[in-house]
Amino acid sequence: MDRKTPLIVITGPTGSGKTAIALELARTYPLEAVSADSMQVYRHMDIATAKPSKAELSILPHHLIDVAEPDEEFNAGMFARRARDAIHDILSRGKIPVIVGGTVLYIKALLYGLASAPPRSNRIRAGLTALAHEKGSSFLWKILNRLDPDAARYIGVNDRVRSIRALEIVFLTGRKASAFHREHAFAEIRYDARIVCVMPDRARLYENIDTRVLRMVEKGLVEETRRLLDLGFGSALRSMQTLAYRHVIRYLESQIGLDEAVSLIQRDTRRYAKRQIIWMRSNYGPGSFCAPENAMTILSGLLRPRSPIGPAGQPV
Q1: Nearest-CA neighbor of 64 among 44, 87, 31?
Q2: DSSP 3-state assignment of 179?
Q3: What's the structural domain count of the chain?
Q4: How far is the C-alpha of 273 from the C-alpha of 204, rounded, in Å?
Q5: Which of 60, 94, 104, 166 could bridge to 177 as Cys pair (CB 3.0-4.6 Å)?
């Protein structure tokens, strides 16, 4: 892939309005989106992941949604490889690719590649997994927070998979996982990327998140969760441990009421957005950020000189 291929990235925390902005742009420009969302890759998971509707897909085709079953592995490396293929395909048809999503590791893997880190250790993973089963995922996170607070800062308290990986690196190498990522932070960028990070003010963002969760419930979040369980996708799967499903499962198991489940989803989503913001402000330049009301003007300015784009990815 030509490292000078122009590429626009529309990112921002969850609830910032990224998809709505991309849809509006697609009414004027021949865009196709590559979804950088680690949950939209899974089939059957539509409401909780805020996937675009059929009507929206008819306006803005999306790549890398519904490409894996909830019990299949899908990671940043797989995303980067498939995203590069999708970008090449979009360009070959004379369309303009835009990356749309807020999974920061996916975007970083696409633009810079992945940090060099030690291979997995089944022995260490088995021990950490057993510890998590015994004392909970938050217990692992607390250990990580003592050993590598910089890594813990960007990992959710209940994100067992990422906590195990970060601890695994520490135990295998004696070095912090965050150190590996810092070393990789200055890798040569793979694309002529223009990053537009949509950043509402905090109060507006949190209001958007709370409203979105309520709409998910109205659209059938509880029924979607029950359907996934009926299909055999158990609560222990990483994909089922996401912000929404985890608490709905607790409701379905009569551990909490629906109102409490909704409140917990809203709380955890706000916390997730806060972690996204911390990472984005630490890794993107000040000029990458914009308020939602300014995004259309900025993105239109980026698209106009690049449109139309020929098969080689260069302006015609």
Answers
A1: 87
A2: helix
A3: 2
A4: 12
A5: 166
CATH number of domain containing 144: 1.10.20.140
CA distance 150 to 116: 18
The structure's pTM equals: 0.80
Considering the domain architecture, whether residues 79 and 126 belong to the same structural domain is answered as no
| Backbone torsions φ then ψ of 240, nearest 5 degrees | -90, 0
**What does residue 310 show for φ and ψ, rounded to 5 degrees?**
-85, 175
198 and 179 share a domain?
no
Instruction: Give residue-wise pLDDT tens across range 90-117.
Output: 999 999 999 999 999 999 999 988 766 6
Residue with tokens 């000040």: 286
Helix (H) or strand (E) holding 171: helix 160-173
DSSP output for 36-104: --TTTTBTT--TTTTPPPHHHHHHS-EESSS-B-TTS---HHHHHHHHHHHHHHHHHTT-EEEEE---H
**DSSP-derived secondary structure for 201-224:** -HHHHHHHHHHHHHHHHHHTHHHH
In the three-class reduction of DSSP (H, G, I as helix; E, B as strand; rest coil), residue 177 is classed as: helix
